[in-house]
Amino acid sequence: MAESRLKAYGLAAAVFLIDRWTKSFIEAHVSAFDVHTVIPGFFDIVHSQNRGVAFGLMNESTASWRTSVLIVFSAAALLLVAGLLWRAARFDRWTVTGLALVLGGAAGNLFDRVMWGRVTDFLEFYVGNLHWPTFNVADSCIVIGSALLLLELLKTRRQPAGA
User: Fold this and answer.
1) Residues annotated as part of the active site
2) What does the pLDDT look like over 3-16, one tens digit per residue?
3) Positive or negative CA dihedral for 110, 112, 115, 118?
């Protein structure tokens, strides 16, 4: 039981550290006006600041309560996921991995909100004029973790005969 907890929290810590490192690197080396093309017509590295929630929702809001509300909801979600991971031995490997990815990503973005009131995003995918909202490593891990959890929910469970 302790081993599965250790692995799960270790994965979450690794996600947090990679997220912090990549954001720090972008903040130090990429200005808000720079665009570093990685795959022309598809993928760029940029530097943007998101004061809102996913996909830049509420980014332009000037409400004084915005950051506080986002921090409270993020912290509550973080505590919920951390609590679920405490019972890691009860879950299968994919559920634990999904929860750990969500925990690490949520911790990375929550850290940014608490420290600076914003989240640094830098991965930009697009085709022509169609742009996916800019995101970061934490966002990627939250999405991947959520997808693993969803797949686990949708997976067909075999029941013993006569059950």
Assistant:
1) 121, 139
2) 888 999 999 999 99
3) negative
Coil, strand or helix at 132: coil
- C-alpha 52 chain-centroid distance: 14
SS3 121: strand
- Residues 6 or more apart from 43 whose CB is under 8 A from it? 37, 123, 124, 125, 126
Distance from the Cα of residue 112 to its chain's centroid? 12
Structure tokens at 63: 């409400």
Residue reference for tokens 């599965």: 4
- Domain ranges across the chain: 2-23+47-56+71-154
pTM for this predicted structure = 0.86
Residue partners of 37: CB distance under 8 A and separation at least 6: 43, 44
Residues 6+ apart with CB under 8 A from 112: 23, 118, 119, 120
Residue listed under structure tokens 């490593």: 137
